[in-house]
Amino acid sequence: MDKNAPVGIFDSGVGGLTVAREIIRQMPGERIVYFGDTARVPYGNKSRETVIRYSRQIIRFLMTKQVKAIVIACNTASAYALDTVEREFDIPIIGVIRAGALTAVRATRNGKIGVIGTEGTIGSGIYTEVMKQMNPDIEVTGKACPLFVPLVEEGLLHDSVTDEIASRYLSVLKGRFIDTLVLGCTHYPLLRSTVGRIMGGDVTLVNPAYETALELKALLEERGLVRGDGEASGPSTDREAGTCAGIAADRAGAQKDSQAEVSLYNSAGGMEEARSGEDDPRGIGSGAAGDTEQYRFYVSDLAEKFTAFATSILPEQVKETKKIDIENY
Fold first, then answer.
1. CB contact at 8 A, 192 and 120
2. Can you give the three-state secondary structure of 203-271, one letter per residue?
3. pTM of the model
4. 201 Cβ contact partners less than 8 Å away, ≥ 6 residues apart
5. Do 7-96+210-243+262-328 and 98-206 share a fold?
6. pLDDT, tens digit (0-9, with 9 covering 90-100), for 53-94
7. What is the secondary structure of 157-218 as a DSSP string?
8. Cβ 118 vs Cβ 76: under 8 Å
9. 7-96+210-243+262-328, what's its fold?
10. Annotated catalytic sites, by residue?
């Protein structure tokens, strides 16, 4: 496999960009192909069979871009589809569940951890299962927050409706005296200011993006797939030091997330107008000029809105997002 090939990343919508941002920070030399399934978001209220079907289609699309590894930057798809697609596809694939669980287990002081996520993620019990394997004495409380994803996708981040819904969801966790809360959906870091304010300063918020980037980096190094020859590729992958560093890095990203919350889907903020296009599903390894760009973005709908949002949180301006018909894959 070509080590200079891109890494594929996918999510149900825009939330996975929080993972993409951390991968860019950790491995600035890597190329990325990102797919956001904006036509079929959210995944959290879909059946296991449907999410597996969606994941298969997206992976087949990403493989037409000759990716060398795939990150499922969606907690629901990680919970429902990861085991299946790992068996079916001959390519390294990782999810985000283990990353978030590992960080939370290392961060908790009183052994009481909360997890918020979609109905699919919480209903699967996957976070509790993985954390209990790491530390059987951990007490895990899960809470489904099904309205958070549509609120993020619609840009209602600093809104009285969002505050009221978040207060209702999080009251259960406040009553369990947790000291660590996993943001168990990649959309949720974009609500971190609201969640943090409601939970209070004594609760550590865990965004799995940092550890996911470390896991990907370690995987690429193990398989000799790191792009470039000995080039610097971001911070160390020392995981014992990584937990504190990851939480610090996550907090450092809060300012960028906050900026994203203000400008989400707001084309009036001086952003360059997005350009959308159609991508031919038959163009496998076409070698078109766009295929050589370091970062490429694809969606199943709403390309211009996605471009505006991606520009607001990623370190570089996103000039183009292409719309594809994912049902062709």
1. no
2. CEEECCHHHHHHHHHHHHHHCCCCCCCCCCCCCCCCHHHHHHHHHHHHHHCHHHHHHHHHHCCCCCCCC
3. 0.81
4. none
5. yes
6. 999 999 999 999 999 999 999 999 999 999 999 999 999 999
7. SS-HHHHHHHHHHHHHHHTTT-SEEEE-STTGGGGHHHHHHHH-TTSEEE-THHHHHHHHHH
8. yes
9. Rossmann fold (3.40.50)
10. 74, 185
